[in-house]
Predict the structure.
Amino acid sequence: MRFQATITCKTSNIAVDIACDKEETKRMLELASIPVASGGICVDEEDLEDVIKKIGYPIVIKPLDGNHGKGASINVTKWEDAVIGLAYAKNYSRRVIVEKFITGFDFRVLIIDHKLVAAAKREPAHVKGDGTQTIQQLIDETNQDPRRGYGHENVLTQIDVDRDTTDLLEKLGYTLETVPNRGEVCLFKIDR
């Protein structure tokens, strides 16, 4: 059997199309009585306001047809940040999905012939402080690992310094020039 990322030689085109469509995937999971985060689809601020009134904060905002966490804003807790998150997601997709932010573990599972054959716990990109290097230096050092690449080209993914990274650091009161304490873990993001 051949694998590429999460697709095997037995994966149908229809399955790929459904998996790439977050709205359809949620609908099918709900029909199968699998719990999903509450939320809705937005194209403008009026839609965004309606969804937030329905589900409340905190929320996740992401492009409807995005991948690799591009354009996503997580753990949004106020209107001003929600508006910014909507605009950011719309850089990647005309339609945006807004969902209740749920904490917990994130797993990727592989099903073959209707059987669970593998599961992997996904962890957010992070660096661990050594008490001397800045966050940027720690990121640069971590990215030197030859197992890191872009997309699905390697086992691990490069840590990108993007809007999500700087937003999460800002929430901690940090910048890329901050020197975290020895053993302190600085989380950046996880694809959602």
